[in-house]
Design brief:
11 strands; alpha/beta; 34% helix; elongated
Length: 256
């Protein structure tokens, strides 16, 4: 199993190199570690939490939801709690008798945003209907919840102008979309707001947040595993995710 140091995660993600293996952050030396298995989209938030959380050291494993699932099922990875944005994975764990249905739910949500490193995006996202751009990229709707809702938004524009369909391209995941926009391969991309909020290119580029009436919120879920190494400690961390302090951190990183 390849190990990627957490300090390099942001570089790899921004380069569009969405990794399938997990990366492991060093945990503090003292106290019982809580093994947090999380998708990379939560990196900024969880690294902030890791600095603030005093109850137990957090050992955070970042990988795609599918890679975490495969590693857990094959007993290659030990997780006390899972954090992700696709509800089907907690459901899979629970149906496989690995997840605790009594300690499962959503703790955050974010919106979809249209992002460009140029100044082309207007506040109302009206640029989409104007067609004054070459390509617009979204995450593949087959594999990404954000891609599913991005496609729904674009379908409403395509009803008015069918030619817009030819401008849309699809990338495998959200970080590949971000990489395509940042590297100038495409003019614009639709992404969850929490992915672009801390991006340095946002300050010099442009973005708009889609009206909430156009798509359902993108939820982020927690789920405890039944065989946690320390049940009480994991419950405390789960409760922290729902706390006011956590909500403040979430807001800073583009969540609601």
């Amino acid at each position: 199993m390849y190990i990627i140091n957490s300090k390099n995660i942001k570089f790899l993600l921004l380069a569009g190199m969405f990794f399938g293996e997990n990366s492991i952050c060093d945990a503090a030396e003292n106290g019982k570690e809580i093994n947090v298995c999380a998708i990379p989209q939560t990196y900024d938030y969880l690294e902030h939490v890791k600095k603030n959380y005093k109850e137990n050291p957090l050992n955070i494993h970042y990988a795609s939801a599918s890679m975490i699932y495969a590693s857990v099922v094959n007993k290659e990875l030990k997780c006390d709690i899972y954090i992700g944005n696709d509800e089907k994975f907690p459901v899979r764990y629970i149906s496989s008798d690995l997840g605790d249905i009594n300690n499962y739910g959503s703790f955050a949500q974010t919106s979809l945003a249209l992002f460009s490193v140029t100044s082309i995006v207007d506040r109302g996202c009206e640029i989409i209907s104007k067609g004054t751009y070459s390509k617009l990229v979204i995450p593949n709707p087959k594999y990404n919840v954000s891609g599913f809702w991005a496609q729904k938004i674009l379908d409403s524009y395509i009803k008015e102008d069918g030619k817009l369909k030819d401008k849309i391209i699809y990338n495998d995941n959200e970080y590949a979309v971000l990489g395509g926009v940042v590297n100038g391969y495409v003019t614009m991309g639709i992404l969850p707001y929490n992915i672009i909020v801390n991006n340095k290119f946002k300050k010099s580029g442009s973005f708009c947040i889609f009206n909430s009436k156009l798509h359902e919120p993108l939820y982020y879920y927690y789920m405890m595993f039944k065989n946690t190494s320390d049940y009480d400690a994991t419950v405390k961390f789960k409760n922290y995710l729902l706390s006011d302090e956590s909500k403040t951190i979430l807001k800073k990183h583009g969540y609601k």
